[in-house]
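anyone seen this seq b4? input:
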Amino acid sequence: MFRGRYENNIDPKGRISIPVRFREILLQKYDDSRVFVTNFDHCLLMFPYSEWIGLEDRASKISMFNKEHRAFVRFFFSSAAECSLDNQGRILIPQTLRKYAGLEKEVVLLGALKKIEIWDKERWNEEMEVLTSNIDAISNTISQLGL
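predicted toks r here
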């Protein structure tokens, strides 16, 4: 599982260095340096290859006749890019994904269980303020789920 928060920079070519701990998990648990990156919720989500394939399999079973399902598939899967870690542990984020997430210089990589979130640092700080101010409501919702 991915956990923790790391700050980094995106280089002028659009590459992000993946934290060593996350790389270790990719290679030890998933035995793969391939990942899929896509847009979601004003950030990017990065999935290990096998987790992505499982997600695609589950998504392929939802109804194409439901308008919201079609919209989700179009938004989420059409933007996905397969990336591989280079020898220095970096991935190249395509320009369209960088633009969507507003990635220009400083980024934050968050471990989020089976995926990694990639945020523009300023946008992450804003999101963190919202989360912090709503923590009681969030805690109540989570407790209702049995966590």
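The first helix runs from residue 20 to 28. Residues 67 and 112 are 28 Å apart (CA to CA). kinda curious what u guys think
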